[in-house]
Amino acid sequence: MAAIHVTAQSFEEEVLKCSETVLVDFWAEWCGPCKMLLPIIEELAQEQTEVKVCKVNVSEHQELAEKYRVMTIPTLILFKNGEEIKRTIGAMPKPEVLEFIRN
Known about the structure:
Layout lengths: L3 E2 L5 H6 L4 E7 L4 H16 L3 E7 L4 H6 L7 E6 L2 E7 L4 H9 L1
Parallel strand pairs: 1-3, 2-3
Antiparallel strand pairs: 2-4, 4-5
């Protein structure tokens, strides 16, 4: 499954009400490190069965970036049962993203 592009309208349903763990990538089209992370996020969305992968374009949905205090992109936030459990900032190789998800 491809990463789900989440909007301000669908965030609650796709992320907060989801019973599984959700990885949310806060990104922007103009962001170089975000572009480096993009293929990794898409691969994870295809490969992961225990984690749902979502993306929020902060240029289009600034209210979500503000609500979750995303000041730097890319920011990855892991949610479980509608609650943020951890976050990381910046592009990273796939093994580090996997470690972030699993630990």
